[in-house]
Amino acid sequence: MRYLFGTTAMLALVVAGHAGAQTAPPSTQGGAPAASSTTDSGANTVEGVVVTARKTAEKVHDIPATITAVTAVQLTQAGPVAGTGDLLRSVPGVRFNNLQASNLSEISIRGSGTERATGADSGVGLFVNGAYVGSSTLGGRNFKNIDFFDVDRVEVLEGPQSALYGRNSEFGVVNIVSAKPKFDDSGFLNETYTTELGKNDLVGVVNHAFGDDVAVRLSAETIGQTSGFYKNPDNNTYYDTTSGWIGRGQVRYRHGPLDVDLLVDSQDLFLPTFVSGFAVAPHTTTTIPLGFSNSRFDVPSDGINSTEQKVQRAQLMADYDLGWATLTSTTMATHSNSLQYYGSSIDLGIESQLQGLGEAGAYPLSQVHTGANDGTDYEDLHLTGKALGGSLNWLAGVEVLDQHDSNLLTVATSPCALTATSGICGGTPTTPICDELRSTSKACPSPFPAGFGSESYTPEHYTSQAAYASAGYTLAKFTLTGELRYTNDLKTATQYSTALYTGVPTVKPASFRFAAGRSSYNVTLSYKLPGPWDDMVYAKTGTGYRAGGVNTGTSSPFAPVPFRPTYGDEDTTSYEAGFKGAIGSHVFVTFDGYASQTLNAITNISDGCSLVNACGQAATAFNINAGTVHARGVELAINSRFDLAGGRLDLSVNGANQEAQFVSRNGTFNGLPIVGSSVAQVPHWTESADVNYAHTIWGGLDGFAHISYQGQSGGGQDTVTSVAPFVPLAGLSNVDVRAGVDYGKMEAAVFVGNLTNQTIRLLTLQSVGITTAVRYNQPRTVGANLIYRW
Q: How far is CA 644 from CA 10, 19, 21, 47, in A?
């Protein structure tokens, strides 16, 4: 894959040398692409997108850091945006760990790795319109659909950003900027249909100006799906379905120095839940000695399998020009509720077949239910200005976060021993059920000898207050910038563990408290190179941290690796040097190298339990501060736009090589990572390429074609310990295509996702080193897209 990247990068440079004058990008109309006309021209360039990633408006070209801005036009050109990964596919050094279910998926930047939704906060700051939207609840490590609905652009700022953004911006920040009301009458309808999924997605936006001071924007999305790839044949339903709606209303008032935007939106969506098919090899377990594997696409289950996310949110964003400075306020109040259910990937019928072969099989009635409730109030207030004739740029602000979270986990397990001749115990304590699957099955013992499962409930309260400032002084071609922040964090949590259905406590409630005053900094020195292109070299160092927390769930007292109820903060110090500039008038290049050290790295490990050892229950995963991690990498991004053969070609390629390893560990017990092993979910190579070509066919009819490529290779899936062997990450080489025509106000296109129909093991699940189940990616999809704009 890296060879393909290198070839494409060279092609970009060669073509640029023979290209004509650069042209401007099409304008964005409320998140829908404008017509792909080849006659647009202007002063805008690829690197000229204005962003607010550093809390002030500036062009990407002028920021001495690795920053990528992806516009709504670029997102629509590439094809349907179904998840966070579609927002980030063209960003160097950034990887989205897609595990089928959005509640479990998460973002990794520069070797930060991911821990598969264990309840820890993300090491990447998640922001919408400058407001923090992450949490330690299930799903709090990923954006929700409402976050990337009707978007204007996505800004990705890499490297530690805690000096400006605080907690959990340790490896970078992703800020999604919503489309604002405009002072005109406009709008669009965007209809997308995906054939294999039977999925219909309709987005409508209406923008209306009431004079020169007030504008309103109303937007809505409805999604329905009748089919899918992954089916539960027991009830004729699909695991990978999406349905529901998103609605948003905005009012913007702009008069003189004041610009205010009030946004209120809501979401109610049923989303794909993950499906893990059994994949047990022969002679690896005593319960299924002959081995067993599900069909990839048909996975029977007697349990409930669904995911639902509800969100209600209000944001107030205001700018006031004081003359000597600009005052910016961002206020947000949001409430979200995520519910997920999943069960065993076999049913009573398959269990009967396994018992017929003389095998104990697996408990077919196991059921897991997770509930995550989050309420967040957020306020950021800052001033930006210039002094000393424009040589000094300064910023000063305060931030307050108040977050109430609660996490619920229920696990239903068998109240009876499972053998090749036993009946299957189930039901509830008040209504016990015994399924005697075969004529030779023995009746269940009465009463059932064990509990029906466990329930864990953990409410948390997280408050954070911070003051921050930055100053940048320019002398000739040198600019020195410093950023400093002091944050006071307080997190309290209480964990309640009870027996399922009965509510009888299994352990005493435990309360925990974290309090810390933290300082973070960033220092950058940049130099504008002589020449016509305003190129830049820079060097910087900075710090970031990820907040500690509480591990939810229960563990057996016989666990080989003792369960730890809490874990502390993680700290990273990073060093970076880079170049960004133009090669001629058609190509903009960003190149950087970095190295970082992370102390008390938060790592997800297993307690080593299984149904067949002394625990008598499935493994419990939990977070610990495992040790010290060293990471390093290089990143290259090339963006170009030029006239070619009478049309316009946009070409973007990027690649990154990264490595992150444990160099020491905190303690000696068996569950800790092996020194020298790689951080989980960090591929050694990531690369992508986007090619978009538009050409006038005849008169006002324009044609366009877009090809997107993503690749990754190397790296390991999970933390390697003495009881958890290395599992390689699956290689990825994905190609998506979208092509169509523009005529006046209409755009029609067809698209193909996963063009080569590549099969990828997203995840290999293991228990004590034995593979038990796997999850796969989505096969090839084909669909059509119709946009009408006015």
A: 17, 6, 9, 20
Specify the number of domains making up the chain.
1
Q: Which of 368, 100, 409 is nearest to 239 (CA)?
A: 100
- Comparing CA positions, the residue from 571, 562, 568 lying closest to residue 605 is 562
Cα 111 from Cα 663, distance rounded (Å): 14
Strands 50-51, 58-59: pairing is: antiparallel
Write the DSSP string, 127-162. EETTEE---SSTTTTS--GGGGSSEEEEEEEES--H
Cα-based angle 213, 56, 329 (whole degrees, multiple of 5):
55
612 pLDDT band (50/70/90 cuts)?
Answer: low
State yes or no: pLDDT of 19 exceeds 80.
no
Q: For residue 607, is it within any domain?
A: yes
In a domain, 436, yes or no: no
Domain assignment of residue 341, yes or no: yes
- Find the helix or strand (DSSP H, E) in which 606 lies: strand 602-606
DSSP string, 457-495: EEEEEEEEEEEEEEEEEEETTEEEEEEEEEEEEEEEEEE
Parent domain of 750? 2-413+451-789
CATH number at residue 252: 2.40.170.20
Tell whether 446 is covered by a domain.
Answer: no
Whether pLDDT at 42 is above 80: no
Nearest to 625 by CA among 598, 660, 590: 598
